[in-house]
Amino acid sequence: MKNFKSIIISAIAVILFFSCTKWDDFKKYVQDGEVIYTGKMDSVKIFSGKERVMLYGLLKADPKVNKFVVYWNNNADSIAFDWVKSSSGVDTVRKIFAVDEGVKSFKIVTYDAAGNKSVVVNTTGTSYGETFRKRLSDRLITSVAYTSAGTTINWDEMDRTAGPQYTEIEYTVGGNVTTFTTPISNPSTILQGVNVVPPIKYRTIFRPDSTCIDTFSTPFTLHNVIADVTALYLSNTGPGFQRVNPNSGRWGVLAAPWITNAAAKNKDGGVNGGYTADSRWGYSGFINWETWGNNPVTDGKLYQPTSTPLPAGTYTVSFRYYSEIQSNSTVYCIVAAGGSGIPSLPDLSTALGYTLLYNGVPVGSTSPSRDETKSFTFTLASPQTVSIGFLGNIVGSGNPGSYFVVQNITLIKN
Question: CA 333: distance to chain centroid?
Answer without folding.
Answer: 34
